[in-house]
Specification:
alpha/beta, six-stranded mixed β-sheet, 1 helix, 18% helix, Ubiquitin-like_dom, YukD-like, Ubiquitin-like domain-containing protein
């Protein structure tokens, strides 16, 4: 799945424990985490035919960095790279 449309695209795994699934996403590293999370939730909701979660309910956790990503910063600013695994919590 693809979220965002910029030139700096990276491929990451997004794990969603609530669905017991892992998705491959191509994400625009120049978009803020807040914007990307909205795109991710919309795409997953359509794919799985489930309702979207409310804004502010979710966070992206970087497994490699062992921290929750700041929603107001971009993936690039936070050092997220190709091949990283992020967990939607």
């Amino acid at each position: 799945m693809s979220a965002g449309m910029g030139t700096g695209m990276i491929l990451v795994d997004i794990q969603i424990p609530a669905l017991d699934r892992v998705y491959d996403f191509e994400l625009d590293e120049g978009l803020t985490v807040r914007v990307l999370m909205q795109d991710i939730q919309t795409l997953v909701s359509k794919q799985e035919k489930i309702p979207e979660r409310e804004d502010g309910d979710s966070y992206l956790y970087s497994l490699g960095q062992e921290r929750i990503l700041r929603q107001e910063e971009t993936l690039k600013q936070q050092g997220v790279q190709d091949g990283d695994r992020l967990i939607l919590i």
